[in-house]
């Protein structure tokens, strides 16, 4: 790789041990992917901010970087943690995680991170702009940033994100280069996408086929909402390793099919019709019984609009006594929802609005048995995809209306 004088100085240790280690990580990463140089970044979203991922060793690594004088030189936001700071005990999160999480969060904050602790940084003040080079972790946010915002980022892990935050650089390869951002295959949507769950189902279907390739969708007829696009982004990055999609006439790098493919011919053309949608939905519904005990709304973290829809569904109703309803969101969303009275409505009905964590990044393999949860019911394709394998809970999957009815009735219909 060709480095500038300033980058060479960083690599030689002229700016301290923390920056030197960071530059070593970036150069090794860049060389392994054939990058020719580094590119300047001023925007990092840090994966690895949950102690479920970092554990003791990762926490100590971040603390050591801070002790060596590490200071972030870019804007940095953080992904969800393993802990709801205000009600971790009540919802079954182990105290050891709370203690370790405080250390990790403090270490990031001490170097200059904005501890927003959410997978929707674009809704809490870190909105990427078109063409901006960034170093983001969190797969769902990466897809959203590349596709919906037209920003440029690869899927960064914890160490490479940390290295970018310390140096303001990332290797220039993958989705930083325009020629890697074109579509590979075409999916013609020939069914109605009625809500964010349908968009998630489409993402699950396309991700399974895609692997790492970029799908192009046509036929997304209605103007999708922000929630639709975040559900699609999350699901694509779950069943597949997708980092970007194009929706013709919707996303900024796909005004036409030709532009989405950069003039190339699609490798394959598929249809997502009624039958494909029904089959994908059925594949995410892995619990044969009607038993409901743990319900999750807010993967990716719920927007204020989603919290409002949950509150509306619970007006004058009660969550069934055998059901734990979690709505997971960012602290900033919580504050707005509280101001609007949605939190009170949900809590009065017996639900919980959980901040800064989610079942995937909290220790659900401890929480679920301690609370007696045997299934997970959700409107999120991403959560329905991961719950069986990651924390051993088979899922019911359906749209918000169906999920909220299950919360009230205590059975899945
Ligand atoms: Fe966010 Fe957790 Fe889902 S990090 S995307 S709520 S799995």
Automatic annotation (TrEMBL):
Listed Gene3D superfamilies: Aconitase, domain 3
Domain Phosphomevalonate dehydratase large subunit-like, chain residue ranges per copy: 1-403
The keyword Transport belongs to this UniProt entry's keyword annotation: no
Keyword presence, Flavoprotein: no
Keywords assigned by UniProt, alphabetized: Iron, Lyase
Pfam family, one: AcnX
Alphabetized PANTHER family for the sequence: DUF521 DOMAIN PROTEIN (AFU_ORTHOLOGUE AFUA_6G00490)
Protein name: Aconitase X catalytic domain-containing protein
Organism of origin: Variovorax humicola
Species classification: Bacteria, Pseudomonadati, Pseudomonadota, Betaproteobacteria, Burkholderiales
């Amino acid at each position: 790789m060709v480095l500038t004088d300033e980058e060479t100085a960083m690599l030689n240790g002229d700016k301290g041990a923390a920056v030197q280690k960071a530059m070593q990580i970036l150069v090794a990463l860049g060389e392994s992917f054939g990058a020719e140089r580094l590119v300047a970044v001023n925007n990092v979203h840090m994966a690895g901010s949950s102690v479920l991922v970092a554990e003791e060793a990762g926490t100590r690594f971040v603390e050591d970087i801070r002790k060596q004088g590490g200071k972030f030189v870019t804007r940095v936001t953080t992904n969800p943690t393993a802990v709801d700071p205000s009600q971790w005990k009540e919802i079954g999160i182990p105290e050891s995680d709370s203690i370790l999480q405080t250390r990790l969060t403090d270490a990031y904050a001490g170097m200059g991170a904005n501890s927003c602790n959410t997978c929707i940084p674009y809704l809490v003040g870190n909105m990427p702009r078109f063409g901006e080079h960034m170093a983001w972790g969190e797969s769902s946010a990466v897809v959203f940033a590349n596709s919906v915002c037209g920003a440029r980022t690869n899927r960064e892990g914890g160490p490479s994100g940390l290295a970018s935050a310390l140096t303001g650089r990332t290797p220039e390869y993958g989705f930083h280069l325009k020629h890697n951002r074109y579509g590979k295959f075409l999916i013609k949507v020939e069914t109605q996408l009625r809500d964010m769950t349908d968009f998630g189902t489409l993402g699950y279907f396309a991700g399974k086929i895609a692997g790492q390739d970029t799908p192009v969708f046509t036929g997304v007829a209605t103007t999708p909402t922000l929630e639709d696009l975040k559900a699609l982004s999350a699901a694509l990055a779950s069943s597949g390793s997708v980092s970007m999609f194009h929706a013709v006439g919707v996303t900024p790098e796909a005004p036409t099919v030709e532009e989405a493919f950069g003039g190339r011919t699609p490798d394959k053309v598929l249809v997502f019709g009624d039958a494909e949608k029904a089959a994908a939905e059925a594949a995410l519904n892995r619990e044969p019984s009607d038993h409901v005990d743990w319900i999750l709304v807010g993967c990716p973290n719920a927007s204020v609009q989603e919290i409002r829809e949950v509150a509306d569904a619970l007006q004058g109703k009660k969550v069934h006594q055998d059901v734990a309803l979690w709505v997971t969101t960012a602290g900033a969303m919580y504050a707005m929802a509280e101001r609007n009275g949605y939190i009170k409505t949900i809590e009065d009905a017996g639900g919980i609005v959980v901040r800064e964590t989610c079942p995937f990044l909290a220790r659900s393999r401890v929480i679920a048995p301690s609370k007696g949860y045997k299934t997970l019911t959700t409107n999120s394709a991403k959560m329905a995809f991961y719950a069986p394998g990651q924390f051993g809970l088979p899922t019911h999957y359906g749209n918000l209306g169906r999920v909220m009815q299950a919360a009230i009735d205590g059975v899945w219909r």
